[in-house]
Amino acid sequence: MTEVRVPTLGESVTEATVATWFKKPGDAVAVDEMLCELETDKVTVEVPSPVAGTLSDIVAAEGETVGVDALLANISEGAAGAESAPAAKPEPAAEAKESSGGGESVDVMVPTLGESVSEATVSTWFKKVGDTVAQDEMLCELETDKVSVEVPAPAAGTLTEIVAEEGTTVQADAKLAVLSSGGAAVAAAPAPDEAAQGKQYQTPPAGDGGPGKDIKDGPAAEKAIAEAGIKREQVQGTGRDGRATKADVAAAVAAASAAPAASAPAAAPRAPVPAEDAGREERVKMTRLRQTIARRLKDAQNTAAILTTYNEVDMTETMALRKEYKDLFEKKHGARLGFMSFFTKACCHALKEVPEVNAEIDGNEIVYKNFVHMGIAAGTPQGLVVPVIRDADKMSFAEIEKAIAEKGKRARDGKLSMAEMQGGTFTISNGGVYGSLMSSPILNPPQSGILGMHKIQDRPMVINGEIKIRPMMYLALSYDHRIVDGKGAVTFLVRVKEALEDPRRLLMDL
Asked: Could you tell me which residues belong to the region Disordered (predicted)?
């Protein structure tokens, strides 16, 4: 018997209300299939099934208020009366043992990919069939929409079978390979029962209910339908009595977007490549990360009313302050004093005065954030990622510099987790490190503002009637004009400029 409990609901959230049950006692459930939906004062949380089996009983009925880790239901694994129920859903790289041939076979499974990530692509195998591997040695690398995940060997032995070849898209907790942990290679573990395997990945049929039969969908599904701008009739509900889940809405949106693409006139064919150039081209498939970057950037342009305002800042005082204290700063704090901490502090200072730049649109409501989770855009060999520094408004210069250095290193090494790239409220992008003099950054949805930094360049400026050479930087603030007016955007950028041209203002909170 496996218990289904209330998951972590988020910082400062201690209880939730059971909004909708998608299954009833006696229903068969697959691994990760949605069981119910919880509603807190901030978000709606879907609760997936931790194992495949049968829903035995529901402990917390719809409408009940439950605390974190409270018991929601029980699931019996496998059919009643079966001699051996399937094992509970294993941890990443779980083991499936057999005794034939004097050794044990160990299944290598897809590890946990992160919240809302259900599939990945096998990008690289570091080992081939027949290779000997040590425990925790890297076997392969998976690529998701946001991060790369390395899969270590769960045991020492011999790689006897590769189930998912390079380029294969695999679901969460699918089998990747089989290891023989004995001395001699043994036969690969038998493939899972096809019917059970199908249950894990296929959407179960909808119930007898559905749209038009007085069946109320969960709040998360209703919100997703409203945000997607589609009709309920377009969504095929797979929950209890035909109720829709967020996954059903996502599938309907994907189908709706694919249909016009299929019926639209074909794009103009690519011009024929001259024979002498054909051998000099290289065609490479876009990585999942690059596809996601492309989709999110285009979605931002299609959704938000993006406008950019510009200003320039004289970096003389900030550069002088940094030069004077950088050695002492590094000696005391063990971190280099860069410009990013100044810009982060200046932005946090300005966001207090212009809170709409730190807000987001949620349906017909504006959500103002009384905290700053600062996204710092970082270019990596795999593409652009935005690690988030949480509660940056409460951090010191040293804490900010350490956090930026640590996140930047993890980003370059592909070690960032999904959680580290979620929840940002504002973003800073520094194109100046690549030599950019001027650009218009694109919003990072659902945020309403992003600051673009650029290269520092000596330019002649008129100071008190005299022409002087000053280190100048152009600043660009892109903002969502749906909730940020021009006055607020300009005020924000002016406050950032003032704080950098006179860093003492940050100390005096002016």
From this structure: 82-108, 190-219, 260-281
Residue 256 has pLDDT above 90, yes or no: no
Kindly tell me if the per-residue pLDDT of 216 is higher than 70: no
Ordered strands of the 53-58 beta sheet: 2-5, 71-76, 53-58, 28-29
**Taking residues 51-74, what's their average pLDDT?**
88
Q: Which CATH class is domain 290-508?
A: alpha beta
Intrachain domains 210-253 and 290-508 with the same fold: no
For the chain, domain boundaries: 1-88, 100-185, 210-253, 290-508
Tokens 């998912």 found at: 164
Query: Quick one: average pLDDT of 326-346?
Result: 92
Residue range 1-88 forms a domain whose CATH class is mainly beta
Active site residues: 481, 485
Nearest to 354 by CA among 485, 182, 219: 485
Torsion-angle region of 167 (φ positive above 0: left; ψ -120 to 50: alpha; else: beta): left
Return the pLDDT at 150: 80
Q: How far apart are the first and last CA of the chain?
A: 61
Token digits of residue 157: 């032995």
Question: Looking at the domain 210-253, which fold is it?
Answer: Dihydrolipoamide Transferase (4.10.320)
CA distances from 329 to 12, 336, 392, 397 (A): 35, 7, 19, 10
- CATH classification of 100-185, choosing from 2.40.50.100, 3.40.50.360, 3.30.365.10, 1.10.10.10? 2.40.50.100
Q: How many CA atoms lie within 13 A of 212 on its CB side?
A: 6
DSSP for 321-338? HHHHHHHHHHHHHSS---
